[in-house]
Amino acid sequence: MLENPTIVFLGDSLTAGADWQKYFGDYTVHNLGVPGDTTDGVKDRLDEVVALDPGTVVLLIGANDLAKRRSVEHVVQNIETILVTLRNELPDAEILLQSVMPRGHEYAAEICDINRHIWQFASSVRTHYLDLWPALALDDGELNPAYTTDRLHLNAEGYEAWLSELEPALERVHGLPPKSRPIRLPELRGGF
């Protein structure tokens, strides 16, 4: 068991929509996902995260910023500020930054640009990075329709696909050996 088994999941409705305690029952879990939240909102809520003194922070934010016409630069700068603040205020915490998830293909170029920047920045503040695109996006950057009903929010299959990436990522972040657990594979559709 970790020295500090408290995990904070921080983000928007994608984070809010999961029962993280069910998935990570060995930890004390706080779901600080807020539907509709943006990088500005997360910046404003960092005191709440720090007050919980978590051993691990899992961050996913940025998808709503683009719908509100925020620039790539704005989103990147805010995510970098969030990471620097978390590192300064929680120097011993493990931080896992997840890529901005795919949504409609019309956002793909901007999201890829954001993800490239935050991936490059993450290591400078001792932050782990998890790229969710290989598991969730189609070739054109669209969120896989099997995982959503509205091109943004995840259905049960979408959360399973996300967890198939997140569980082993958290094991790596915590320096734990892989668990003996069933491997989560997305359901094959269309007879393949």
From TrEMBL:
Residues 9-161 form the SGNH hydrolase-type esterase domain. One of its GO terms (molecular function) is phosphatidylcholine lysophospholipase activity. Pfam families: Lipase_GDSL_2 (PF13472). InterPro entries: Ester_Hydrolysis_Enzymes, SGNH_hydro, SGNH_hydro_sf. This is SGNH hydrolase-type esterase domain-containing protein. It comes from Subtercola boreus.
